[in-house]
Amino acid sequence: MSDKKITNVSRLSLADASKALACGDFSSAELVQSCLNKIQLNEDEINAFTNVNGCEALEEARSSDSRRKSGSALSELDGIPIAVKDNIDVIRQPTTNGLNMSWFPKKDAYLIRRLRSMGLIILGKTNMHEAALGATTDNPHHGKTFNPKVKYATPGGSSGGSGAAVSADFCIAAIGTDTMGSVRVPAAYCGIVGFKPTRGFWSTEGVMPLSTTLDTIGPLTKTVGDAGLLCGHAISQVNLKTETLAVLSNFEKAPTEKVIVNSFSALKELLKETGINLAECRLADYEPTPARRAGLIICEVEAYSMMENLLMSNPSAFSVELKKFLTFGSELSETKYLENLAKIEHFKAQLLNLFDDFSFILSPTTPQTAFPFSQTAPVDQADFTALANFAGCPAISIPMPVGPNSPPVGIQIMAPPGKDAELLSVAAALEQLINEYQ
Known about the structure:
This protein is α/β, with parallel strands linked by helices. The protein has 14 helices and 13 strands. It has helices spanning 3-8, 14-23, 28-46, 54-69, 110-117, 160-167, 184-190, 224-231, 258-273, 288-313, 320-331, 334-354, 386-391, 420-437; strands spanning 49-52, 81-85, 121-126, 138-139, 143-144, 173-178, 193-196, 216-221, 245-248, 278-281, 360-364, 395-399, 410-414. The longest helix has 26 residues, at 288-313. The two termini are 33 Å apart.
């Protein structure tokens, strides 16, 4: 196989890489080498990784190839390289949680054990916003991660390294965490798919927590079908004309970048022209920015509780900005914490009531597209994504159709808790419709 062909296979989706490995088009070792070649060429300008474990990945790839030759592949995904956010424990690789310190875990996180049992190969650990408490991945200790699709811009966060790694074809898929949008925001900014499953779908054992109330693990992939493969959900054929889709109007008055407003309007027109019924729904007293602030307060209080010992024993591992967030959380009264927790529970109840009438709820994923690091980060990046974390429901961001010179734009789809497979199937149908339109 030529070097050119080896380099190109890193662009494949998870599904296509799986089929190609099964057909013997290339080996797992060649696929892993393709990803390593791409990293070597472009990592300096992207900075997606905090650690790349190339030698071990190649060893595991050769083991996978031996299994395939003997007819004992562990799964259809055996031998495919993925990347993992650096707040998730991977044995023999350092965990930093985006801090100025590292530790070598004694065992893999629960999800990593599950992925390894399928034969997936952990290529490395990805950069993230410090302690997962932010949405730019401008990390003071490990450097900025840059968006592969928008020059000099943020990839979003906090799973920015995972989003950038998939978007840059450094790996076939990646794993991130999502507390108020940290998988879906990078997906929207980087032009890929980001899926937040129902809360608790994957155990967070072995994951450095930010908020025990809101944390969820989710995949970042090149297609909706790939997200289904990683989560073990089969994608069903869906007739969108028979589905109950609604647009959440609470976000319509929020300050939103013009390209996003135009893209979302064009998508709604496309759905109507295709004969798909699109209703409108509303949460009675939901305002995105105050609601997101309530979620941030929960994060700050719970993050301090989780990181207090680390902060006390190793204060130099934390930036001044992170210390301010954690200090705020430490000083907030229990009454204030409980008040904000009650707000979140109220929003959850409202959204669950909406799901009695509407099976799938659509909105833009973010109010803005990827912005340059030279610009002050907007505070409202998670204004549209936080609601799904409050309700614990599954939500996905897929790319919306945009013009040739436009930055990526994401559409978010939410579904009732436990309806992950149904959401992925509807998202796959929308993805197909969008691809046909483009």
